[in-house]
Description:
13-stranded antiparallel sheet
Amino acid sequence: MNLRDQRGKFINATNTIAALVFAVIGCTAMIACSTVIKSTDKGPGMSALGSEEAAGGKIIEKFDLSGDKKADLWKVLQVVPALKEGDKEERILVQKKMDLNFDGKVDVIQFMRKDGEIYREEMDLDFDGAIDAVAFYKKGILVRRELDLTFDGRADVIKYYEDGKLVRKERDASRNGRIDVWEYYESGRIVRIGRDKDGDGKPEYFDEAPEQDPEIPDNKPNTES
């Protein structure tokens, strides 16, 4: 097997791992919480551990998912004061943090707009405390995902989606910090591959894609509305 084939197999394996991690997070999030909550909301198997005030008029609510009486889920709520006497203050979920492997460190951070819609999600794929993947959503639909699969602090795979479907993947195959491979997708399969041969950031050479299995779907937000 030549170096290109070995590198291709490594990238495919790491992409598969990343997709599976996103799937696991989706299941955890569905069990843990909904995007529209009140301060007293509880999910199945979830114990409330109290709350604390934070800067900017926010409240952080803590929950235990594993049963060890330690926080595994944090909900950050923006407090909106009552506009007039007799009204109640409003608490809006704007951020969620999750500890997936129950080691006390945050592995996933989800950012929500005031209407409960996720617009950004950050993930630590290898549980070392550093963010390795960032997903961007528009109207609840995935539009872009950036992955650091070599764990060097730089995104080496960027996926683009249209209507929630993968249409293009850009890769830094040479690991020099610049995109040099473009993969174009139709119906979950690569149909064409572009390569940058002279380092100008543009593909000069295109070839047809080999036979391959469809890409593992990873186009849904990791929470329910």
